[in-house]
């Protein structure tokens, strides 16, 4: 029988973890990796999420899961790929410990892609349980290469189905193209509302540009789900290794050329922006007379006009391009500038180039 | 037992493998540590030992997969394996099952070798190594040292190959250490960066994005600078005679210097300037769009303010 002192020590640690009190020792940080069989089955019994559609608010993704998902999404190129995530719940947070890819190439029209992969999933889960990964499947992820992180109509219906039968379940979307172009990970985690439920307030979601051919799909369904906050965690060994990795990594950072990598994508974005501009122009020309009628009634205009959105999009694309250009210019100065100082005997170039 | 490898094969290691192994180790450590504390709970399934008192964290074992092209071996991914501590062998059926699963998702990768944790190569490892030789005739062994020593500067990962050496008249296989490089795809680099430094995840303002981008480059340049300084000091010391001359090193430094400037052709300059101009053009366009948007707003507000009494439709719209 476990002694009362050890169980109270355990309870203290759990409480600390749930309240996110920063554990200063490594042991506390790694506690998150322990799969508590008893607490998990208790949570399954109680099902606190069935009463509140907005129950889960946060997602914590482990370093490993993020890396695996992003690499898999990128390896698909411009084809959507999907996979499953394993983890557990902790209060109102879903913890994603690991992810694995599924051997199905998704197209936006296949609702039940997961049915094909059930055998794979069962096999994978059983093998995982044998190697000290007893967590259950807690969600699915898929990629939207180049068109942003949101749930399409098919995705929403798939997720609603999942949330009926496989709770707790989470949907994660990754955009590998935007990740590479922007230099930061483009990821979103969502849960759908049950049919007919109206959210009490309009959640403020981060704005992102959506290509014209998908914007209808986005608009129709964007009220049926909400986004969760994503944070990341890593073990003490992970942080140690990643710190050391930087010693070898700086070369890659310096040598990366985001302009070259995302040339296609940028061209596509500009094209799309041009289409949107044309659409906005038509809209404005037709509304010119209409606006006089309504100008007296001060109708509330909470959404921005089409043109403001376009302006924001264009600034974003340009900013990314300028960042890429800055990298190129810096590299040119670093490695090419000795050309400019060939004949000078007097060391005036940047430090690394010239011997004192 | 381990000396330098001479096989001439270059190894490229992806960070995913490193994080994979580290995660496997942490999990197992967490499980065994906690199964020791609460002894009444059913012991969680694990592949290693199951001690009663908090045991030393067990070794983890697994397989590394990737591609070998000519003399370059690129290790992309890895997965866990079951180890039977009594017979000191890896569970073969499990390995084949897992390999099948991974082949479905990553059809181009095949088994390159195995990994384990620990501080140094052990005798028993040779048995495991041999058993993998029928899958891959020259498997590699990746060893991760999970001890966290804060003064360490190098990654605690070593890659070993086996070579046939004649010792005391008997040809024996011994482990030899090889060097490796870290290779990455752009997406991997960004996510590792993201997790390692926990950069601001959302857009923030343009200023913070710019700051983040430039900080990354700045730290990389700082590293480059410090490395070059080290070389510089070494060379100066050599010049003064404090350190014995090392011709091969001098040759390498000379070849490095000869590589600068990196590209010097006319064509490159042209292309570079073209790209520069393209970006400036984009900025110009964005500015234009911005101005148009603002102007449109001004016009709308003006219309609202001044055209209220012509709603009956006499006057045309103010353009």
Automatic annotation (TrEMBL), chain A:
Q: Hey, what's the signal peptide range on this chain?
A: none
Positions of the region Disordered? 289-312
Which Pfam families does UniProt cross-reference here?
A: CSN5_C, JAB
Q: Its GO CC terms?
A: COP9 signalosome
Supply the alphabetized keyword list: Hydrolase, Metal-binding, Metalloprotease, Protease, Signalosome, Zinc
Q: Give the Gene Ontology MF terms in alphabetical order.
A: metal ion binding; metallopeptidase activity
- Top-level taxon of origin: Eukaryota
Q: Which residues form the MPN domain?
A: 59-196
**Keyword Lyase tagged:** no
The UniProt entry's GO biological process terms, in alphabetical order, are: proteolysis
- Please give the family membership noted in the entry: Belongs to the peptidase M67A family. CSN5 subfamily.
Q: What name does this protein carry? A: COP9 signalosome complex subunit 5
Origin organism is Rhynchospora pubera
UniProtKB/TrEMBL annotation, chain B:
Domain spans labelled MPN? 11-166
Please indicate if the UniProt record lists Nucleus as a keyword.
yes
Which GO molecular function entries does the Swiss-Prot or TrEMBL record give?
metallopeptidase activity
Please give an example of a GO cellular component term from this record.
cytoplasm
The principal localisation class reads: cytoplasm
Entry keywords, A to Z: Cytoplasm, Nucleus, Signalosome
What name goes with this protein?
COP9 signalosome complex subunit 6
Q: Name one Pfam family in it.
A: JAB
InterPro entries in the cross-refs: EIF3F/CSN6-like_C, JAMM/MPN+_dom, MPN, MPN_CSN6
This chain's function reads: Component of the COP9 signalosome complex (CSN), a complex involved in various cellular and developmental processes.
- State the compartments where it is located: Cytoplasm; Nucleus
Q: Which GO terms describe its biological process?
A: protein deneddylation
Indicate the family of this protein: Belongs to the peptidase M67A family. CSN6 subfamily.
Q: Does the keyword Translocase apply?
A: no
